[in-house]
Specification:
The protein is an alpha/beta fold. The chain is built from 14 helices and 14 strands. 50% of the residues lie in helices and 15% in strands.
Length: 388
């Protein structure tokens, strides 16, 4: 009856996942464009976008910023030594849009990550009361800046970061990304973020991060996070520790993103962040890999094994039938969870059947990220190697 004991443990994990998922979405406040006019005078917002070889994305991102109904914008792009067509695109757009300022990035010094150094170079040029940090692979609805600004001011926030709508098109995006995003959602204690008594509990998404300039400067800006790989959450913690409320909110009605386009980009991108996000702790890696395997891989495997033993030579094997039935029910629950997660990411329902493959790839990615850091080989991103 050992399989039943294992399945009992899986049932407990499934119940915990359901509870965590419900708690996450209950705490994730939705930010939407209500269509109401912005109070005059409009506060100036400095929009800062770091770019490095973003020829495929930067024009769409910037045109969505130009089209914002909130017109009081200072737009600063830091070109982090791009070697593709990015500089030419920026030059062409800057000639047509007077609000756009392009800053050529300096060579990366030792002790900095590329994104932090690029953003720190923008700091002396900021003029806005608020600062909006965007990634170049995002694009905005016309009311995004105004809605996020109104939300932050209404709630007295020092920082608000929006979760964007994921746009997943390729096979591997649809297989891996929902698993990664679900794990992240389950891990975030959003309720604790609102507790001022826990100043070190804060998370943010650097794809869309709006912060009061006074809070940003008091927290030391990106210069204070110069070595951080996961710089968005590091900045959120610094802002909260400086005494400002912070919030991670649902911005899927306002912000869109396509993070990666193929397996290579997915692998490099998440390998860069994963072990850092787990606090560089091997025990957390093992616990996470074990939990993901137990939930997504064990029940389908038990179904396959048990079905072969249901009809024994001497008749029906009742214990095998019971095990098969329980494992089948759990597999159905897992497929339903995958379907719900895929629906949130606008992924076709048939990709629910790939959840074991996505989980296996996720586990491999987590282990690879840990191996790169622990072995001293470091992680790479945008052609740069970051050593632990």
């Amino acid at each position: 009856m050992a399989p039943l004991g294992l399945l009992a443990g899986v049932s407990i994990l499934l119940a915990m996942i359901a509870w965590r998922a419900r708690a996450f979405f209950a705490a994730l406040e939705r930010v939407a464009d209500e269509g109401s006019p912005t109070a005059l005078p409009e506060p100036l917002v400095s929009v800062v976008i770091p770019v490095r070889n973003e020829a495929a994305n930067v024009e769409r991102c910037l045109r969505s910023v130009f089209a914002q109904r909130h017109r009081a914008l200072q737009i600063v792009v830091v070109d982090d030594n791009s070697t593709d067509a990015t500089p030419a695109i920026l030059t062409r757009l800057a000639a047509r849009e007077p609000r756009l300022c392009v800053i050529p990035g300096q060579p990366l010094p030792r002790g900095w990550t590329g994104k932090n150094f690029a953003l720190a170079q923008a700091a002396p040029h900021l003029e806005g009361e608020w600062v909006l940090f965007l990634d170049a692979d995002t694009w905005l609805e016309p009311g995004a800046v105004g809605a996020a600004l109104a939300h932050a001011e209404d709630r007295g926030l020092g920082l608000v970061s929006l979760v964007p709508r994921q746009r997943l098109s390729s096979f591997w995006e649809r297989v891996i990304q929902p698993v990664v995003l679900l794990v992240i959602a389950l891990a975030l204690p959003l309720q604790a973020m609102a507790d001022p008594r826990r100043p070190q509990v804060a998370y943010a998404n650097g794809q869309f991060l709006l912060v009061r300039r006074a809070a940003y400067e008091k927290a030391g800006g990106h210069a204070a996070q110069r070595e951080a790989i996961v710089e968005d959450s590091a900045l959120a913690r610094a802002v909260k520790m400086a005494g400002y409320p912070v919030q991670l909110a649902d911005g899927r009605a306002l912000v869109h993103i396509r993070m990666y386009r193929d397996l290579g980009q997915i692998w490099e991108g998440w390998a860069k962040n994963s072990f850092e996000s787990l606090g560089r702790r091997i025990d957390r890696v093992l616990l996470l890999v074990g939990a993901v395997s137990a939930v997504t891989l064990v029940p389908p495997l038990i179904v396959l094994v048990a079905l072969g033993r249901v009809v024994a030579p001497n008749g029906l094997d009742a214990s095998a039938a019971l095990v098969s039935g329980v494992a089948s029910l759990q597999t159905a629950c897992i497929l339903y969870l995958a379907w719900r997660c895929n629906r949130e990411a606008d992924v076709p329902g048939r990709y629910s059947l790939t959840i074991p493959l996505g989980a296996a790839m996720f586990n491999a990615l987590i282990c690879y990220s840990a191996y790169r850091v622990v072995s001293g080989r470091g992680v790479s991103w945008k052609g740069r190697m970051y050593s632990p």
